[in-house]
Write a structure and sequence with these properties.
The structure is a homodimer. By secondary structure, chain A is mainly beta. Helix content of chain A is 10%, strand content 43%. In chain A, a hairpin with a 2-residue loop joins β9 and β10. At the A-B interface, β1, β4, β5, β9 and β10 of A face β1, β4, β5, β9 and β10 of B.
Amino acid sequence: MIALPWKDVEPAKIHRLFYPQVPVVLTAEFQGHIGGMPAIWCMPLSFNPPLVGVAIAPEHATYEMLIGAQAFAINWLNFSFAKQVGELGEESAKGVRDKLSTVGLSFVKGSLTGQPMIRDAEGVLECRLHERHRIGTHELIVGEVVAASATENFTEYWDFSKYKPILYAGTEDVGRKCWVFRSGIGEKTIVPLKHQV
Amino acid sequence: MIALPWKDVEPAKIHRLFYPQVPVVLTAEFQGHIGGMPAIWCMPLSFNPPLVGVAIAPEHATYEMLIGAQAFAINWLNFSFAKQVGELGEESAKGVRDKLSTVGLSFVKGSLTGQPMIRDAEGVLECRLHERHRIGTHELIVGEVVAASATENFTEYWDFSKYKPILYAGTEDVGRKCWVFRSGIGEKTIVPLKHQV
């Protein structure tokens, strides 16, 4: 019997095996309130119709806005905005009129859904809520993409010499607990968590 | 009115906005046949129970094995195996006794599911089929993780100074069509497609 090079990974850490992952920012507006939250569990689900899935915990205020609006946007930001993306994960949208502005981001409204799209986004999808499935602790939101846009850094594919995606790599304790974001070229940004755990 | 920096992305290219993504290799055995295929649309869906989702086109032979077995494994390989991962995407498992061996990979059987796990994997999940949803062109396979393992390169998180994940970044035409894989530190590997399109 050949010894295997593996050891057990405890259940609470399984999701970390998927790192690094590119976080998107999920944005939604309902009744005049603008929400935005980073989401790491997000991927395409179908080519035609173009459907995308994002799994989020239903406790989020932005989730409630998304359900209220029956629509939402998905935004990709350059690595230079890693700090803002981290900060959006630190506060709730509850009771805030425009959460995006609290981290210095502005938005424009999508022409097909009216949903907020981050002005500095490299890429953005306007989605209509297509279906949703409760799966364990999270809800899988399936959106139909009704419009997709990107900067000139995307043509056939991303030009990664210009668009530097954020690669989420977990947290790190350097005196205080921080998010860790890496660029695709070895740079690293750490964003301190406001609420130390 | 401020001009927006975006242009439209055609529907067939929407999934490329999600790049770079870490491909996993989905493995399954049914009736003595070993299948393996790269999957890029794969993410966690729930913390507790630990559930993961992988969206694949049901035409794949490995899909049929997975459904037959009602179980499967998810494998993460180091960047040094990018070529093998690409090659697994180039051929079908149909009629092949052990597809993994055709690209030089060996496997061990998971103790809980009996499913094949790639011996050189950095991380591996044993999953039982939990539920599945047809969503557009693809089927979302939801697996309950019954065992998770990783090399010593994973403790609290991945040590990216040792584990170099594969970052799938699309294809490129350098005389012939190639897959493009990037490491997290700016290295790039291109794998020629066997079947030129």
